[in-house]
Amino acid sequence: DIDTRTIKSIGISGVVLMERAGVAVAARIKELFTKGKVVILSGGGNNGGDGLVAARELFNAGWDVKVLLLIKQDKLSPDCLLQYRVIKQMGIPIEFRTDISEKDIQCSVIVDALLGTGLNKDIEGVIAKAINLVNKTGLPVVSVDIPSGISSDTGQMMGVAIKADCTVTFGLPKRGHILHPGASYSGKLFIENIGFPDDFLKSESLKVNLTDEMQIASLIPARPKYSHKGDYGHVLIVAGSRGKTGAALLAARACLRAGSGLVTIGVPESLMNSLQYRVTEEMTLPLPDRGDGTLSSRAADPVLRFLSEKADVICIGPGIGVTPDTNKLLSDILASSKKPLVIDADGLNSILYAGLMMKTAAPVIITPHVGEMARLLQQSPVISHQSGTNLRAPNSQLRTKIEQDRVNTALSFSKNNEVHVVLKGAPTIIAEPGGRAFISTTGNPGMATAGTGDVLSGMISSFVGQGLEPLSASMLGVYMHGLAGDIAAREKGEHSLIATDIIDYLPSAFIKMRGSI
Fold first, then answer.
1. What is the spatial distance between Cα 292 and Cα 420, in angstroms, rounded to a whole number?
2. pLDDT tens figures, 97-141
3. How many CB atoms lie within 10 A of CB 91?
């Protein structure tokens, strides 16, 4: 859309944009690689035209250039045809091909200019064969705009896809560069300015954005010199059941490390003795239980009273289990709470089990992983804590569908249910009912371990308690959670990373962000 508007509204021709794109690609290649033989694999669209410009620039710089056009001449777009004629006039070796072999791509660098951002069907034929050959060579590959075969909208592989070492894109990154598996296929991403108006690139109509370090740093609540613990929020965490008190502790400690002034943990009263000796800065609130280490529905009254009198936000769900009582407890809290709610884990499962709607007078943030998101979408029951009966597990096809379009899944659920959604995963997506979404740029595979979700829900709750509105609290929580995990992974490695490491490295994450303010 930006490309079209630049041509039609501003009057910069498509050929000029193509020239600037091709020159940018060639400049990056000259910067990254030693001069040698380069093979340009081009299609017939504007992406192929960008590749032809790059071929010309490299040829002029003394590179040994060969161009293979994997399309018939009568299928070239007008701008690509113009670039082809220029190449021919310059005497650069260029061939139209309906087949390709390993001998054709023996070189030092391969430039992938086969397919661009408009791909909407699986690849087949000679282009599929070329992609497979390129991936087998092990040679350095530079993709123009996006690796051929990756959907720019979803990051999904359309049959086959180029595995690039680096990608040179224009104006802005595309979702396909950030979402998996496209992120893994794009390699190092370079974003080049080819003349799009700045107003177009910063337009409010662009509803999906990456989390940016400077933007996130500006969200960190100030700590005035003249202040006290009451200024930084009181978070009530309702969490834990027999065998799962760790979830409550992780969420609470993450709250404190994220800056909360006061944190109270509400747990079943029969577990209070085992919890009491493990808490230090946290306070505790014994809640009625059913005698089996799970919360009773009678806990609703003391929870709501505590919320009304003392707390600024409630985080509910980590480790509470799923029983008829937790269902009733969630129902009563949702119906009556005037304070913001962060609902995670078994809190979400209890809502589903009871068939509840999440709409309430107070703001709601939900933090599902893909399995919980699948259950939310199909509105199915879950495994009963009491009986262990699998009432219905998430549909595997639905889980796959969510992973194939994480952004739109989060956006549509947020809008339809009027809740803020933090869809955890790689990458995590934050969506708000007004139609904006943010893609997290921090985090690593080492964080795929038990308890990291409890840490995240605690951090988001902390930032809500410190006065941030739900979207900002979610963005800040997700970014800092991932950043702490990244710092921990550098120190301890991804394989050894555990949830408490994220809490331990939160101070380092805040110190790092201080330099961005």
1. 33
2. 999 999 999 999 999 999 999 899 999 999 999 999 999 999 999
3. 8
